[in-house]
Amino acid sequence: xxxxxxxxxxxxxxxxxxIPPEAGPELAFAGRSNVGKSSAINAxxxxxxxxxxxRTPGRTRMxxxxxxxxxxxxxxxxGYGYASAPRxxxxxxxxxxxxxxxxxxxxAGVVVLMDARRPLAAGDRQFLEWLAPVxxxxxxxxxxxxxxxxxERAAALAHARRALEEAGVAATVMLFSIKxxxxxxxxxxxxxxxxxxxxxxxx
Length: 203
Hints:
The protein is of the alpha/beta class. The chain has 5 helices and 7 strands. Strands 1-3-4-2-5-6-7 form a 7-stranded mixed sheet, sandwiched between helices.
């Protein structure tokens, strides 16, 4: 059984000093505000309200941690790129997210959600630049892919892969929709393998 099906809320951190001590591998989920990050976590865990889904962009202002038992943890990062948030608040988010990524040795992978209809916007590119010194593997999920036709999905996937390659960013890129059980299961399998690999590499 997938470790994600055992997920439970662990803690929230609004400041660096509130981040729980490292304890096993972690998967960080990131994305622009309202891209569907919390919905993706809920789909992977097969739960409706594990991660709070808000219709108001920029509402999540903390890093929310979820425990996966012996397999590891999930860290749900605040959404980035919400231009209407006050500058001081955006700066606080950036310090929290940047500090977490730079100092977290337990990262087993970083999942970046991008809207399949508008991938690699300015905020996405800035976040990928933050990730440059992070050694953990990256997974780019082109979310809400069910809103595209088959040909549009293929084009979006090819465009994202080409743009990341041109930017020198090594990442696995996948189409994703919470309405597509096959895509949800494929992501579960890949991330589960990353968690297991992280555990083996630490032994």
